Amino acid sequence: MQKIMIFSNMYPTQKHPTYGIFVKNQVELLRSKGLDVEIIAITDPAKGKIANLKKYLIWFMRSMMHMLGDNRRTTLTHAHYAFPTGVLSLIGKKLFRLPYVVTVHGGDIDKMAAKNEKIRSATKKILQGADAVIVVGERLKKDIVEGFGVDQGRVHVMSMGVDTEVFKPMPKSEARQELDIPESEKTLLFVGNMIEAKGVLDLVDAFKVIQEKYPDAKLHMIGSDKDEAFMRIFAKRLLDNDVRIIHHLPMPQKEIAKWIAAADVFVLPSHHEGFGLVALEAMSVGTPVVGTDVGGLSYLLAEGAGILVEPKNPQSLAEGIVQALSESGENRSSVMQSTAASHSYDVISKRLMKIYEEIEKTRKKKS
């Protein structure tokens, strides 16, 4: 295999360490396996029409220059997110006959493709033109096959994988001591962007119920607060409920793993979720997970791996958290560890490299 060129509209930097961290982790994983990987990505999470137009235009031109100058050495391209990223891979196939892989993460189907018919049509062309489509959850596979007419033989269900060297069991007492969390505290943890779609308003409403039963409970929320308009709504909801939370800005994954280990319950109340990688990371650490019965979470937390609750239902969410707090911490341990092991980096890298190799073999046969 010669070279893999990866396109992504999200990629972390020191300034924005969690912006598309899952893509960076996969890139580094592939490089560790000896692959020559080039990443061309957007690293600036800035929003706004002008900012978006500028960064996407620069990214598009950079990507085209890379394909123009290096298409002979490149084996295939791999786009993260169908639209708009997949447009680059589609162009690469038409102009330079470069085969491509697309990883669908969820939002590109649930939200982006639903914006208008033009985007949906472009998404369909990208998916149908791909040599392989990777989806991060079973429900997404169904959407891709039935909604976009993609041959199911080219659709592979595969998560981005969990780094079990970072997200691994750690004694709760040790984690709490390092983070200065009292042993007696009932600690709830949320990790994700502070946006409505992640169900954070539902979590605030549910936490008010939790505090009535557990007065010493604390809710820690780790995530970006870039959406100022929503944060004003969030602050008002806190005030209306007379609820206080502890908000932490994004932090390195090793620190997040420590916070997960210190928590009694990890909560992910999303309104939609392609897979729910952060829930898998919590399971790998060994912390019970309460999540909404949506998207990939419906499969990930099934069969006793976690506690599923109704989406957009604070009462159901509160009941799920109470259930998790009242259970023995060992009840779900073996199922959680088994699930995490099936998504380990070693397993994921072997499956991904096999997909690449099959595409390369097919290309050689045609040439």
Automatic annotation (TrEMBL):
EC number(s) recorded for this UniProt protein: 2.4.-.-
Residue intervals of the Glycosyl transferase family domain: 172-332
Family annotation (SUPFAM superfamilies): UDP-Glycosyltransferase/glycogen phosphorylase
Keyword Glycosyltransferase: yes
Highest taxon in the source lineage: Bacteria
GO molecular function: glycosyltransferase activity
Keyword field: Glycosyltransferase, Transferase
Name of the protein in its database record: Glycosyltransferase
Organism name: Sporosarcina thermotolerans
